[in-house]
Design a protein that fits this description.
This protein has 347 residues and is an alpha/beta fold. It has one domain (5-334): L-arginine/glycine Amidinotransferase, Chain A, CATH 3.75.10.10. The chain is built from eleven helices and 19 strands. It has a four-stranded mixed sheet with strand order 1-5-6-7, sandwiched between helices. A four-stranded mixed sheet has the order 4-3-2-19, with helices on both faces. A three-stranded mixed sheet has the order 8-9-10, with helices on both faces. The longest helix is centred in the N-terminal third of the chain and has 15 residues, at 32-46.
Length: 347
């Protein structure tokens, strides 16, 4: 049988969301109790809509937070971790002839900026735990890659950024052409749209696409925008110009919807308060909020974009203090991934 790879869009049917529980008081400092409560809140919201996989390090971090009924909806996987960013150290799903194939890429702390020795081993712990359907293939890929660096429309088109995929300390031993060919082949893409412009201050990922521009339908892209007096204006406006020129495999342009970034500082440092870091889980769209005036506009835009889904805001003010947001802290697993022997009819 010929191998036919397809990279699903995030709005396709899902079976679970993964989060990696915070445990490092050194990273979160005085915010540690608050970020723990944030993850409790996120967990309770998610398990009301789908199953949840929690990667945890210390058992006492979790036992007191959930009822017996809630625990029935959660799969717990014990593994030591460096940080919380499941989107980047997690398994990436594609369909191979409509059967799930899981990729285990190398995660090296966004180009060796931060320790990732434990995070890079998390996926092996997850697979060995028995949560994944035994017949599925989990393929180790000798290539540095992060889930937040790519976004798909489910129909052979994907977005990424040059700043990330061509950065030093990721895959610099490959040429740009080889990197593009590798990504297109692994994800079964007709076109990989590589944006050369766009950044957000405070983002340590070398401009992950999930902070800048993402698909909300097969032919519509939302993107980060800002006012002319914002320091990001030139870069984001150039990114918009690139998006305007993009064509799909049939020569058609995409519909574009701009969503203003927020203006948030921590000790005079600008933070990447992007609403593009949303999370789609079946019939819900979870959007990050930052307790600022732009929140209301962002929610209204998403409500227009997803009239048949419930838009649920989640306060991510603490997450962006560490450079990420809601999408960064989660990973989607699609229908056909989980071990059917472990599933319960609870939804």
């Amino acid at each position: 049988m010929n191998q036919e790879i397809r990279f699903p869009a995030e709005w396709e049917p899902q079976e679970a969301i993964q989060i990696t529980w915070p445990h490092s008081k050194e990273i979160w400092e005085d915010d540690f109790p608050q970020v723990t409560q944030l993850f409790v809140s996120i967990s309770k919201i998610v398990i009301s809509h789908t199953r949840l996989i929690i990667i945890y390090f210390r058992p006492d971090e979790l036992s007191r937070f959930f009822s017996d009924a809630e625990i029935e909806r959660i799969f717990f996987v014990k593994a030591q971790t460096n940080d919380i960013w499941s989107r980047d150290h997690g398994l990436i799903s594609v369909y191979n002839n409509e059967k799930i194939l899981l990729y285990n890429y190398i995660f090296n702390g966004w180009g060796m900026k931060f320790p990732a020795n434990f995070d890079n081993q998390v996926n092996k712990s997850l697979v060995s735990h028995g949560i994944i359907k035994p017949s599925l293939v989990c393929r180790d890929v000798p290539f540095v890659f992060e889930g937040g660096s790519i976004d798909s429309n489910g129909s052979g088109e994907a977005l990424t950024t040059a700043a990330c995929i061509f950065s030093k300390n990721r895959n610099e031993h490959f040429s740009e052409k080889e990197i593009i060919q590798t990504i297109k082949q692994k994800f079964g893409l007709k076109r990989l749209h590589v944006l050369r412009s766009g950044f957000l201050a405070g983002d340590d990922t070398d401009s992950h696409i999930d902070m800048l521009a993402r698909f909300v339908s097969k032919d519509t892209i939302v993107y980060a925008t800002c006012k002319e007096n914002d320091d990001h204006f030139e870069a984001l406006n150039k990114m918009k110009d690139e998006l305007i020129l993009l064509e799909n495999a049939f020569g058609q342009h995409f519909n574009l919807v701009g969503i203003p970034i927020g203006t948030v500082y921590n000790e005079k440092k600008r933070l990447p308060a992007s609403y593009i870091n949303f999370l789609i889980v079946n019939e819900r769209v979870f959007i990050p909020f930052y307790n600022i005036e732009e929140d209301a506009e962002a929610k209204a835009i998403f409500a227009d974009l997803f009239p048949n889904k419930e838009v649920v805001p989640i306060n991510c003010s603490l997450l962006i203090k560490q450079g990420g947001s809601l999408h960064c802290a989660t990973m989607n697993f699609y229908k056909g991934t989980l071990n059917p022997l472990l599933l319960r009819n609870i939804f």
